[in-house]
Specification:
single chain, 218 residues, Helix Hairpins, minor pseudopilin epsh fold, 7 helices, 5 strands, 17% strand, globular, Mn/Fe_SOD_BS
Length: 218
């Protein structure tokens, strides 16, 4: 019998309907239990095939699997960060005063929180097709910036992800149809600024939510 580590779907720290009316329970359930689960399942399948290809010295298959591994691993990582970045609007963590250090840096970079939201929203609405908008911090200079990534790409090396917003259609279409602007406007009501503050202050907390568990095989 051998033991392998496999990725598993993280539990949400709130109920599916906890973010209503800003994000519907129907969307949250579908997004988490179906879409995110698919990334986890497909990632584990691709990694399993990769291990078999390594054992058989099949370099062609190893190379062919890289795209599937990158796409699904990115989907798992990005969504895990996304769920942790959300919180019910009634929570104290949804208030900007839960992130005093981050807000001071935001005000320094964008002159005001309102201007920051305006610029971040513009990044999100300019995404063509599927992708993510991010608030990131340079690991060397400590400076903040806003970027977009395509599909399920993770943030570039050298950048620390502080806050990512999902702009795939499955994140909003059941509730907002093609009205991305309203989705972007509403999501600011349920941002977990306390969590974003923790990432800003301590990089070690960022990827703690990525779950792996042992799987025994004969």
């Amino acid at each position: 019998m051998t033991e392998n580590w496999v990725y598993s779907l993280p539990e949400l720290p709130y109920g599916y309907d906890a973010l209503e009316p800003h994000i519907s329970g129907q969307i949250m359930k579908l997004h988490h239990s179906k879409h995110h689960q698919a990334y986890v399942t497909n990632l584990n399948n691709a990694l399993d095939l990769q291990q078999k290809a390594i054992k058989s010295n099949d370099i062609v298959t190893q190379l062919q699997l890289q795209q599937a591994i990158s796409f699904n691993a990115g989907g798992n990582i990005n969504h895990t960060l996304f769920w942790e970045s959300l919180v019910p609007a009634s929570s104290p963590s949804a208030q900007t005063n839960a992130a005093p250090n981050l807000m001071a840096s935001i005000n320094n970079c964008w002159s005001s929180f309102d201007h920051f939201i305006e610029k971040f929203s513009a990044v999100l609405l300019n995404i063509k097709g599927s992708g993510w908008g991010w608030l990131v911090q340079d690991k060397i200079t400590g400076g903040l910036s806003l970027i977009a990534t395509k599909d399920q790409e993770i943030v570039p090396a050298g950048q620390k992800p502080l806050l990512g917003i999902d702009l795939w259609e499955h994140a909003y279409y059941l509730q907002y149809l093609n009205d991305k602007a309203t989705y972007v406007k509403e999501i600011w009501n349920v941002i977990n600024w306390a969590q974003v503050e923790q990432r800003f202050l301590d990089e070690s907390v960022i990827y703690r939510g990525i779950r792996k568990e042992r799987r025994s095989e004969l």
